[in-house]
Amino acid sequence: VQLVESGGGLVQTGGSLRLSCVDSESTFSINAMGWYRQAPGKQRELVAAITSGGGATNYVDSVKGRFTISRDNAKNTMYLQMNSLKPEDTAVYFCNIFPVSMARAWGQGTQVTVSS
Q1: Which residues face 62 on adjacent strands?
Q2: Which three-class secondary structure state does DSSP give residue 39?
Q3: What is the mean pLDDT of residues 16-39?
Q4: Contact indicator for 48, 80 with CB cutoff of 8 Å
Q5: Which is the most buried residue in 1, 13, 39, 114, by most CB within 10 A?
Q6: Model pLDDT for residues 38-58, shown as the tens digit of each residue
Q7: Which residue, among 100, 81, 84, 83, has the nearest Cα to 38 in the 3D structure?
């Protein structure tokens, strides 16, 4: 039972990436989910969250208007479309249940590096 993130990479400022999260758990569709990130030397923070059905989303102020969270329950997959990337978006990105108090074991994450 695991969460697997992918889609990270190295991009220049202003570039875009699309992250994917595949959940092997059969209960994916009943859980609110979130994308989290952890930059070097900083605590892990919530970036975006989405309700179980995908009807409502929420974002940290620093990514509003640039990132879009979505999910496909038929594929047990969640996405994070990241546009207009900034160097301060550099971090390892993780997916897990929202809220974090309900989180399962963390996956490896996917590294996003934005060069200036």
Answers
A1: none
A2: coil
A3: 96
A4: yes
A5: 114
A6: 999 999 999 999 999 999 999
A7: 100
